[in-house]
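User: Structure tokens for both sequences below?

Assistant:
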Amino acid sequence: MKLSTIQERSMQHFTDEFIQAIPKTDLHVHLDGSLRISTLIDLAARAGISLPATDEAGLRKLIFKDSYRNLEEYLAGFAYTTAVLRSRDALYRVAHELFMDNAAEGVRYIEVRFAPQLLMSEQLSFQQVMEAVDQGLRDARDELNRQKPRDEPEYDYGIIACAMRFFTADFSPYYQDYSRMHEFSSPTEIISGASLELAKAVVQLRAHTSIQIVGFDLAGAEYGYPASDHQASYELVEKGFLHKTVHAGEAFGPESIFQAVTKLQADRIGHGLHLFDTNLIHRTHEQDPETYVTELVNYIANRRITVEVCLTSNMQTTPDLKTLADHSFRRMLEQKLSVTLCTDNRLVSNTSICKEYRLALDNFPISPHDLKNIIAYGFKRSFYYHPYPQKRAWVRSVLNYYDQLAEKFGIKE
């Protein structure tokens, strides 16, 4: 079979070796969705937690698949991953392994996100959860920086705390206690209240510890649970000078993204899959649907609000998306949006950052100039923990290193 023009250009210029070598980021990777499957099995055995299977093949067949029937089936595995993570040692181990696995793929910077309230218990406070994850990432970073050649850019990381758009008492011990203590509040008030408590905790920990908390996120069920319910939380974290990202446009349309960037003032958007889908606009606006989307896209582009694109995850959770070539990433590139490629959940989606780049290069018209921009956006739009002058110098070292590798592999813009 003759290869398409896109595939020919991608395979000719961007070999797997080149993709592996170039410095990359992963700005959207969930800790509880990215365990090594062998670690999950081991932690479950140590904690006495029953899994549907006790070997990798069995878990791949039953839980962590290459494809899923729907979002509910995709999310089923998180019940097991969050259960095994409710200890300091488990959190440290998984965070450390996640950084090392990324570094093995050429990732120089990761922002690990998770919902601390899903992992807390009577034995594990918010601060203890954050300290364990931070220490695992910090130790991995320091090991990697000690070992790297002097002329290569440094490794680093950030932590993003996720509030939940929706939860019930059975989601975690913390949510059970919180719901019980607010029995006379409505579900919306309980969800908004827990979100605000998390925002307060994040701001305090950022101000009074060295834990590298860099941002706040809103995750979970999107349809029927609007971002506006969390406006007070986002106003608080903004006062604490934290960065903001929001899962939006993953399971709902442009209006969800509009709320994220206007009500919550998001710096980045997680997924943004349905940004261009006028058929998913449900309310009456002054503009017609096409104009509404055009204005929203321009708003995002002009403010360089970066979209965290997760190709494999979107294919697995969106039944209407039949082929990858139909993904809105194509239109994002055409509109010159700031985009970065991410994994979302390495275990649940059975993916890696190199796989995501390979998919993008094989299915979309990405020139050498485009690829460098995608790489650059990941570093420039990161929620880097350290002062801005240090970030500028670090980004410059990354791009210089990229240029050296491009020349070595014969890539010309």
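Moving on to the next sequence.
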Amino acid sequence: MSQVTKPQSSELGGEKNPIRIHGYPRLLSGFFVATLALWVHRLAMSFFVWQITQSAFWTTAVAAVQFIPSAIFGPFFGVIVDRIPLRRAINLALGITCLGYALTALAYSYGVTIPWAYALLAVWIGIGTAFYAPVRLVLPAAVVPKSALPAAIALSATSFNLTRILGPFLGATLIAFFGVGTTLITALVIYASFFPISWSLNLASNGARRKTQGDSLWSEFTEGVDYIKSTPALLGFLVIAVMSSLFVRSMAELAPVLNGLKFDGAEFSLSLLTLAPAIGAIISGVLLGRLGGNFTRLRLVMILSVTLGPLTGWIAGVFNAFPIIFFALLGNGLLGSFASVGSQTLIQTQVRNELRARVMSIWASLALGSIALAAACYGAIIDWLGLTATFSAVSCIGIFAGMALVFQERSKH
């Protein structure tokens, strides 16, 4: 992987604390409510699908297909976000997802128990999430100066991961006391509260431009791809993000399956197992914020994280004691977030503004798409080979891939 191109000192001068910048605290609160609703809704849907199918495949498939639109359409949504004003892009993304949440609550209220129906709804929600992803990734750069961008990204990631704690806890509590239907409606109301927050934001221009003759979505997408290919450091950061998704972060997505096979699908244990990687990710966000602009150290942390991270999956698959699995998933969240948020931070500080949405949507498509692909495949393999064999095999492959990355890095020095 090539050396990181460090920003000039003039680019990093100025206010470095995004909390002191007008508008960013409101943006952070918008991110918070949107991701809180996402986790509440995801838990409710996974819990209900497991109830009606008792199948690891269907449970992981319904969760995983939400990522597929990001993998397929995400880069083109990035092109659209580069073309239109950010405020309009926010409204479109929120509207698509709100409609998906409303239809899911309606299907449940009418007693629909066909798993593929919820898979289709998950795809629609995934389309909204895919459109929201580039918007979410470029919004901090539209609110804070470049000097505060690394800390803003770390804070946004910390907020996202805090909701991974509060969301499952709130979701599990609502399911236990009020049922799945109330939980789905609550997720819709929470998510919709981002609308008034977004309307109050003062956004810098994202360089949106009208489509000109010959500027197709495909040509503008390939412009983003060519930019990444011509910047080896960006390509290296994308490789690390994909490795983290395939061999580290995807294992945490199997928490409902772990809970179903090892702890009889109990609501409380599910909330704790979903909580564990979120705690690790929050710790990661705090540590990444302290690294600030130390790009060399951040790159080293990313490489070590994708090498050691697969071990956490092996531990979670082999051992049956709840505390061991909990702390394994906590470590999974810590190391997976180091690699994922670290790669995002380094890309954001180097990418050109007019290409930001396209490049970050490619990052999101590869990172999230890899999670979806891996989680769906692992769920199917678990039904065939069993949990322990699947987790052990994936962990071994991930460790060898990480070691190859370490040796490649050492050979360049």
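User: Anything stand out in the second?

Assistant: Residues 1-12, 209-213 have pLDDT under 50 and may be disordered.
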